[in-house]
Amino acid sequence: MLSICSAYLASNCLLENAIAPTNLAKSPNVSVEQYFCQGKRDYFNYKLSSALTNFYQALRLNPNYANIYLYRGNSYVLLGNLPNAFANFNFLLRLKPDFPNAHLVYANRGSAFARSGNYRAAIADYTQSIKLNGSTPLVRENRGFAYYFLGQEQAAIADFQAEARLFRFKFAQMMELIYAVQHKDESRLKTNWPLVAPNRGQEMKGC
Is the pTM of this model over 0.90? Predict the structure, then answer.
């Protein structure tokens, strides 16, 4: 395990921007799990500043709590703070190489790369995510967009087709994207590089 000092420095745990503490953050007797649960609750309700406050407080108590770095990375991507997002994702992969949800880390770091315009790095991360867990929606779709923006239209179509086969509820959407690629309809080929969120029902059990 990494030292507390190493964890704080490597993950930007000491936030540069002040975030107003929640009532929970002011309590002197709150456990790591309570901070994390409140942070997840805030995250799923898109109260990202409050979520980051609680994740920060949890990591002060246990800087080696790996799952928190996934949530912090996701939060920073959604807030547009890509350097801090990369710091959290990268640190998590070093801290726990066998992290059970590593496919989510790679998928969402891929989206961070895509949002920064680094489509080749995004494709590499999406591909690693698929290798680790091939049954996650969005990853092939996002990789398809990354291929498209690199000018690799056939690879993009292949990914959209694969997404349609694996996730029938997305069939119509993927067919529209394939049609748009084939007919060079750029007005339909837009994405905000969505993240693959952890399963809310599972994550909130016990909170």
Answer: no
